[in-house]
Amino acid sequence: MKKNAPTPQAEDAPRLIDARIKGLGDWRGRALARVRALIKEADPGIVETVKWRKPSNPMGVPVWEHDGIVCTGETYKAAVKLTFAHGAALPDPARLFNAGLDGGTRRAIDIRETAKIGEKAFKALIRAAVALNAARTKKPKKA
């Protein structure tokens, strides 16, 4: 299988994420749709998946992957939370990360109803996460 090629499960993910956005029907849906578009603009090779589906969360969690998880997009009453799997290792000169700052690996961005996200900085963060994943998956060549 081609690297980053959609799996049968992943081919259903865009439809599920569309349904999640539509089902929210409020500012959270608009915020999730906007960051989703920015993620795809930043890395056209990103693969959308949905993980962690269970009875208490049948829609699951939208996940964006490229050589591993880049970030997840969860929705709560007061925020849309984007959690970056290896956020602690990413440069964040614009200080987009505002949640999970004391975690050893992950970092998150909580987007509240009136928040504006710096699109250029956000896309740079996505690209940095993709580059980090690519570097982590490269195997050293044997001499």
> What's the gyration radius in Å?
15 Å
- What is the CATH topology classification name? Aspartate Aminotransferase, domain 1
Sequence of strands across the biggest β-sheet: 1-2-3-4-5
Give the helix tally. Answer: 3
Report the major sheet. Answer: 5 strands, antiparallel
Between the first and last Cα atoms, what is the distance in angstroms? 27 Å
From the helix content, strand content and strand pairing, which structural class follows? alpha+beta
Low-confidence blocks of residues? none
Approximately how much beta-strand content do the residues carry? 15-25%
Give the overall average pLDDT.
90
The count of DSSP E runs of length 2 or more, i.e. the number of strands, is 5
Listing every helix as H and every strand as E from the N terminus to the C terminus, the arrangement reads HHEEEEEH
What general form does the structure show? globular
Q: How many domains make up the 3D coordinates?
A: 1
The percent range for helix content is 25-40%
